[in-house]
Structures are given as structure tokens and as C-alpha cells.
Amino acid sequence: MCPYCISECSGIRIFGKRIKSIAFSTDVAIIKNINADAIIAVYPFTPQAAISQSIISISDVPVFVGVGGGLTGGKRSVRLALQAEHQGAYGVVVNAPIADEVITEIKQVVDIPVIATIASVHTDVRRKLEAGADILNVSGAAATASMVAEIRKEYPDVAIIATGGPTNESILETIEAGANAITYTPPSNGELFARTMRKYREINP
Hints:
The protein has eight helices and ten strands. It is an alpha/beta fold. Strand 4, helix 2 and strand 5 (63-66) form a beta-alpha-beta unit. It is globular, with a radius of gyration of 17 Å. The model has no long low-confidence stretch (mean pLDDT 93).
């Protein structure tokens, strides 16, 4: 279950669906069983179409697919974005280091939203938006809420997804700063199984 407090945010409407909670996972078992409004599927490896296809096919909710920007970029990211759209992705996510001109190229070939990750206070947000980014994905660790507040002050109408952190308090702080949707990292399969096994041991010591 996603934290209930995420429902306090305004949400982002994409193709008629209002999205507030976004689960950050590539684990198909978690994706199939979580109550999030959407999935954000990014990972620290070269993006592969087979992975995005697997996640999109198993998910009951919209999926935002990572198409590179760090390890992968340029024409490959553009091709991955186009392929992700054909697979049924609701949006493509580009990593923080991606060149602005690649965002522009992606925007020219897809009709789904382009989501640009903002990982540092030093990122030039204006250039990302001018390049064609439709939504900002703010992921600044402990600085996320303050980064959201600064962006919201300068761009009152931009759609912002942001990491909410591990507690209800940190999630609410990020929402109050101006985030429209919150990404939530669920416990891993291992963590969930450990809880279940503890219960089993209590029943059958």
C-alpha cells in the first residue's frame, strides 16, 4: 500500500487519468500487487525495450519508462522513447545528465509526456522546459522539498513529480512545497518476505 497521505496532492492528469501516487519499482510482483496510480520504471543500467515491455504488459496502471540520459543518450534514447510509446507507455523519463537537444528530439517524435529528472539545485530548469520537457521529476534526496518549492515559485503551472521520502511527514512536506504527484519506493520482495516469515515462525515456532 502506498502511504495514504499521498492522496493530499493535486495529481497530474495524463490522458484522462489523474495520477497522484507513483511506485518506483521494476519488480513485476510488486508492480502487480501495489495500489499506486502509476509506475515509474527507471534503473541504473542501459535501458532495454524488453524490460519496458515486460513491465507495461504486467502493470494494471500507467507506466512511465526510463529511456536514458546518463549511460545512454543521443539517438538511442530517441529510439527507445519512440519504442516505449509504441509499447503503451504513458510517458518517458530522461535522466538528469541528458543533453537538452536530445529532449527536443524526443519531443519531436512522441506524443506522450517527456519527464525530465531534476537531481540538483544547479540544474537549469528553464532549459529543460524550453527543450520540451512536459513534466519535471524532482529527485534531490533530502533537498527535494526545498527544490520543489524553488521550482514552484518560478514556474507556478509546471507539473511536478517528486520523491516523497520515507515518512508521512517528509511526503507531506514535499506536497506542501508544491509537488503534484509523489514517487514512493515500496519495500523489496526480500523485505516483505522477511515480515511474512516472521509471522509464520510465530504461528509455528
